[in-house]
Structures are given as C-alpha cells and as structure tokens.
Amino acid sequence: MSKETKKKVSDENFDTNDSVEETEEKDVSEEETVKETEDIDEKASDSKDDSDEQSEESKQDDESSDDKKSSKKDKKDKKDKKSKHQAIIDDLNDRVMRQMAEFENFRKRTEKEKGQMYDMGAKSILEKILPVVDNFERGLDAATEGDSFADGMKMIYKQLMTSLEEAGVKEIEAEGSEFNPDYHNAVMHVEDEELGENVVAEVLQKGYMYNDTVLRHAMVKVAN
Which member of 139, 164, 180, 215 lies 3.0 to 4.6 Å from 210 by CB, making a disulfide possible if both were Cys? Predict the structure, then answer.
C-alpha cells in the first residue's frame, strides 16, 4: 500500500473516531437532558402531588369548618327551640297553677256558703222548736209529782233535749252569773242586797246557743 493511501485511510479512521466520540458525547448529552427532563417532571409531579394534598387538606379543613358551623347552628337552633318549648311549658304551668288556685278558692268559698246556708236553715228550724220546748217545761212544772203520765213526758223531754244537744244546741248559763249583753236580754231590774252588782237575779226565759252563735238571748232580771 502506498503512503498516500495509508495516510488517507488514517485520516478516515481519525474522522470516524471523532465522529464516534461526538456521537457518544451527543448520546451522553441527550441522556443527561432526558434525565434532567425526568427530574423536572418528577419534581413537577411531586409539586403537583403536594399541591393536590394541600388542596385536599384545605378542602377537608373547609368541610370541617363548615361542619362545625353547621353543628353550632344546629345546637343554636335546638337551644332556641328548647327555650321556646320551655317558655310554653312555663306558661302552661302558670295557667294550671292559677286555675288550681282559683278552683281551690271556689271550693272553699262554696263550702263556706253551703255551711252558712245550712246554719241559717238549722237556726230557722231550731228557733221554731224552742217555743215548743218552753211549753214542754211549763207543762212539766205544773205536773203532779208521782204521776206516771208526767214521768213519761219527762222522759220524752229529756230525749228531746239530748237530740238538741247533739245538733249543737246548748243552754246559755244565766242565773247567778254576771250580766252580759251578748248573751242576756235584761227586761227587769231589782234591788237585792244579797246579790252583787249587775248580776242576773232570775231567768224569765231560757236562752240557747247554736254552735258558736246565739240562737236566742236569755230573758233575765238583773239585780242592783
């Protein structure tokens, strides 16, 4: 082979080597570029994931905040409803208590009126019986001692007075006691040194009490 041919081949080999090195360098550069691109993409992906996570957390926080607000609102609504219901209950309780108090007053007033009406009716009947009792006593005073008929009348008289006592009627004490205008009706006045001043000397007509009220004043003679 001639020198020129060798030189040409050598130059061609050199050029080929240079081309190969350039190609290798180019490949390396491309690999680095690809790697850098992948790193950028990875970072971008990580950044996107982080952003998505933050967005999701922010969304969850917003939802949690909304839930809290909703819960507070529900509690407030329940509290308002409870307050309204309690106010209604209090009003109804107040009405019931007032009605019960009015009914109790009405019951007491009715019982008192019934008692007063009963007492008025009883007094009216007893006042009509008292003259019969007076005549009964006058007849017994005039009866002969030992008369069987008179003894029978005395037993009837005793039974009558027992019935009157059970009904609340009792005789007013008068003779020998101090004169009291609330119970006694003075129709005569006498001077008697044996008796004290303003003392009942004699009972002309018996007086009677019905429970705590005067059914009939005692008609008396007052001394001094």
Answer: 215
CA angle 70, 74, 75 (to 5 degrees): 120
Tell me the pLDDT of the chain (224 aa) as tens digits.
444 444 443 444 444 444 444 445 545 455 555 556 666 655 555 555 555 556 666 666 666 666 666 667 667 777 777 788 888 999 999 999 999 999 999 999 999 999 889 888 999 999 999 999 999 999 888 888 878 888 899 999 999 999 999 999 999 999 889 999 999 999 998 888 788 888 999 999 999 999 889 999 999 999 97
pTM, to two decimals: 0.55
Domains contained in the chain, CATH given: 76-167 (3.90.20), 171-224 (2.30.22.10)
Token representation of residue 220: 């008396």
Contact (Cβ atoms closer than 8 angstroms) between residue 186 and residue 140: no
Work out whether strand 208-210 and strand 199-205 pair parallel, antiparallel, or are unpaired: unpaired
The two tokens of residue 22 are: 């350039």
